[in-house]
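Posting this for the archive.
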Amino acid sequence: MDWTERYRPLHLSDIVGNGAAIRQIADWAREWTKGSRPLILYGKPGTGKTSAAHALARDMQWETIELNASDQRTKSAIERVAGNSSTTASLSGAQRKLIIIDEADNLHGTSDRGGAKAIGDLIRGSFHPIILIANDLFAIPKELKKRCEPVQFKALPARSIVPRLRHICRSEARDCNEEALLAIAESASGDMRAAVNMLYAAAIGSPSLDTRGIATSKKDGRATIFDLVAHLFRARSDEELLRLSYEVADTPDTIIQWVGENTRYILSPTDRNDAYRSISRADEFIGYTFRRQYYTLWRYATALMLIGTARASQGSKLAGRIAPPGRWKVMAGMRRQKAIRTAVLNKFSRRLRMPQQTLRDDFLTPIALMIDACAPSFAREFDLDADELNFFLHDRERSVRITRDSAAVPDLPDTQKSPPSPPEQETISRKKTADSQSTLFDGF
């Protein structure tokens, strides 16, 4: 286990710095009622926002429900995961649940379609406390900000980081001098997580740590994975490649995917095979690292993949843009398709009063044939966007055109509508649903 997880604060009293924010969080939790506003913990990465939320739940003996950017945060996903949790009692016997929505400033794109509105609905109807976490307060949708109470987490000064690093060194039985710890704390630029990661990288395979030992583990904000890959195709020394690998934020299991993807720029088939052989051997060491939890092996994996690939690429030029790992694009596409399929099944199962499994197994093909024949009508009646319509048509251009034309059809002005009484409204709604479905399915 890496040190950031091993030494993650368990209680609010363990959080380093930001005393005012911690006190505000604790007071909010003690006085929380159903009418209390949710909190937005915001500030630069590594200042303890997520750790504080989990520590608060542990101190209050609350159950936690968490959604972050790695999860689907569509309207249906939030309603399914957090929505149900917000109105039901805890199965573990806890008095309350703390609903944590991480990276709330990153609700964008198809994968998070409807997420901001769903979170707003969640806030209005929740019987449990809610905390949103963000790096940038101004990137959070306005409708969410106005319903929440902001709590700022500020960058940590180096003098606050050093005692924590000293505690970790003592716990790990490492001899670390004060000058080295101060150098790490200043290099982290207020980011506790980065400081612990740098300490961990510098301490691998060494019982003691001094300023010479941290020279290759300081965080350089200018070094990125693109710099590292570009250096593979230049006449650089082995020492410089390894130094650069320690400056990038990515770990070897991520670096190897970038190196493998861009090995295609090596022109000679023989040299390319040599590079892949080195990458394959490095991958074995990465596997050993995770199986044995012995992270010293990461150094061997890094040296094998970088030095082996760099020597094989001599004479080759970086012809073209550095490409991210191809599997990432495939995985992102699969997640996007899965989200679209889920949204489609939810809409049709509700409108047709049919279980999703039955709809998926027996009726998707006939429905697709009917939609192909009457696409505009289905797009309007089922409120399908271009992605959802394309799920059936497999014709992106046609789907975009149909949804655009459907959106351009004006609704009846409100002045021409006479609102019926509630009993009449329910009757009309049922009749409208039955008539629309009858019309759509007529003749099939």
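The first helix runs from residue 3 to 6. The chain has four domains: 3-152, 158-209, 225-324, 336-441.
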